[in-house]
């Protein structure tokens, strides 16, 4: 109402209603869909480059693109979840780096399968994250060319982001396949089956003895000659290890009464007299005579029996490494750096195939193989010394970084060269034991002249020295060295005070090594 002066009035008893002032329709945001998130207040229109940049940033910081697009709640949730997962992964990585025993948990078949599934899930999750980040940025508002360009680039980005997870899953599958090919799922028929007890996988043993064999099987050679034979006697509690090296030309080894070959050779292995009966012939003889062994493929059992009886140790498991496959393994880690003391010719009787020159060398797989095997101008004991240099160089230079960067090549080469009777359920305990051995004391004893003659061995002296080396290995390092056994895997024979009861016959090959034992670092220049 208004009075006669034109002034609005309000009837008595009523309140004046506030006048609502509205903004022009252009300022009201007309046309915005109901419930759609409001655009950032000061955000500029996104260009194709900005869309790609924010999408790529989301691959590193999930939620960044959602925050830019105005989806604050979703973006904050993604950032928070990612931060928690990243901190958890970092904490786990630091714990593994601080204690290598944690890695053993990943050696089980179930753990490897879980890693493959986890990597696949993460790959799909990152793919979905990039796609949703891209969609949240509204690429449909771009020009048609911008939409096509950003779509192609984001597709390539998705493939790139998924590749590390796919590589991880493929690497684990490669290891799983290699483990399945090397380690048998069924127990060795010659070993009594034991119940699988995760709390005590080694069935109450205090020590486990592994026979490590280097064989020379090849496509152009018949059978297997075990040219390198070492026994690793490992204390399960501490990982303390003693390595016993037996020469290939050790003659007339005995077999225990339980062995089928004991009756055939009651006075020692004499398969090829007058100069035969060498230790490296036992495997092939047992394989060639299944009627004597009571079955086929009994070469490993015969050699384990002979070496175990020689050392008075029970050999629990063996592993055969094909020396020609070993060359592939050396190539897989990128070669071996070794100091060659003098020129080594190889090939045939006169070394016509090539020469490995003296000096600091990085050997290929083929060169490393022949460096350890060449007989040209050499003898068996010098070869044993060079073989230990190759083994020591490989153990030192196959670092975790090298293994990770060449993982698939190493796994493929290992699958081709290894044979063992270690059952598959012991793979994880074996990795745990290897971690212990890596940080424990290792001593070495070689049964070579002048302390031990292979032509006419003193079996009692060998057994006494074996027992003494094991007992000394359990003492503190200083006491063990005083007793004559070195605390390094590189030292050859320990000094034993046992007097030889009789003069031995001439060994089949002479020992031309210089007097005095040396460590691998000094001898091989590692």
Automatic annotation (TrEMBL):
Q: Which domain of life is it from?
A: Bacteria
The Basic residues compositionally biased stretches are 14-23
- The secretion signal range is none
Pfam families documented for this protein:
LytR_cpsA_psr (PF03816)
Q: Where is the composition biased (Basic and acidic residues)?
A: 1-13
List where Polar residues composition bias occurs: 479-494
Q: Locate the region Disordered.
A: 1-42, 471-526
What UniProt keywords are attached to this protein's entry? Membrane, Transmembrane, Transmembrane helix
The entry's protein name is: LytR family transcriptional attenuator
The organism is: Nonomuraea fuscirosea
């Amino acid at each position: 109402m208004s009075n006669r002066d034109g002034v609005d009035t309000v009837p008595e008893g009523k309140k004046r209603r506030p006048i609502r002032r509205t903004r022009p329709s252009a300022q009201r945001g007309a046309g915005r869909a109901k419930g759609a998130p409001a655009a950032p207040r000061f955000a500029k229109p996104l260009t194709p480059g900005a869309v790609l940049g924010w999408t790529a940033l989301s691959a590193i910081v999930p939620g960044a693109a959602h925050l830019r697009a105005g989806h604050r709640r979703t973006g904050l949730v993604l950032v928070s979840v990612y931060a928690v997962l990243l901190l958890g992964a970092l904490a786990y990585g630091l714990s593994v780096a601080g204690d290598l025993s944690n890695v053993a948990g990943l050696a089980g078949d179930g753990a490897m399968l879980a890693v493959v599934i986890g990597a696949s899930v993460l790959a799909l999750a990152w793919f979905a994250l990039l796609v949703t980040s891209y969609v949240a940025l509204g690429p449909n508002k771009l020009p048609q060319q911008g939409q096509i360009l950003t779509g192609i680039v984001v597709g390539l980005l998705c493939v790139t982001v998924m590749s590390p997870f796919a590589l991880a899953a493929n690497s684990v599958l490669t290891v799983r396949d290699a483990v399945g090919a090397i380690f048998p799922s069924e127990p060795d028929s010659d070993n009594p089956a034991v119940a699988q007890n995760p709390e005590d996988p080694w069935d109450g043993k205090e020590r486990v003895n592994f026979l490590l064999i280097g064989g020379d099987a090849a496509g152009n050679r018949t059978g297997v000659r075990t040219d390198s034979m070492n026994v690793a006697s490992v204390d399960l509690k501490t990982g303390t290890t003693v390595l016993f090296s037996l020469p290939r030309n050790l003659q007339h080894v005995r077999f225990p009464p339980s062995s089928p070959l004991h009756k055939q050779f009651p006075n020692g292995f004499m398969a090829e007299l007058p100069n035969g009966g060498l230790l490296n012939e036992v495997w092939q003889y047992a394989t060639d005579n299944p009627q004597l062994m009571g079955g086929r493929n009994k070469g490993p059992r015969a050699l384990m029996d002979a070496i175990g009886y020689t050392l008075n140790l029970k050999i629990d498991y063996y592993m055969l490494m094909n020396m020609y496959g070993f060359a592939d393994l050396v190539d897989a880690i990128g070669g071996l750096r070794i100091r060659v003391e003098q020129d080594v010719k190889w090939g045939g009787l006169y070394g016509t195939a090539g020469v490995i020159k003296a000096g600091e060398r990085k050997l290929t797989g083929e060169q490393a193989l022949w460096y350890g095997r060449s007989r040209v101008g050499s003898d068996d004991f010098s070869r044993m010394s060079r073989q230990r240099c190759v083994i020591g160089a490989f153990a030192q230079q196959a670092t975790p970084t090298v293994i990770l960067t060449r993982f698939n090549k190493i796994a493929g080469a290992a699958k081709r060269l290894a044979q063992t009777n270690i059952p598959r359920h012991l793979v994880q305990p074996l990795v745990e034991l290897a971690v212990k051995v890596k940080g424990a004391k290792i001593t070495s004893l070689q049964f070579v002249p002048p302390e031990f003659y292979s032509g006419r061995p003193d079996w009692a002296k060998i057994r006494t020295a074996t027992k003494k080396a094991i007992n000394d290995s359990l003492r503190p390092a200083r006491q063990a060295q005083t007793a004559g056994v070195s605390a390094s895997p590189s030292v050859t024979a320990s000094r034993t005070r046992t007097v030889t009861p009789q003069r031995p016959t001439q060994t089949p090959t002479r020992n031309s090594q210089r007097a005095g034992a040396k460590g691998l670092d000094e001898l091989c220049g590692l």
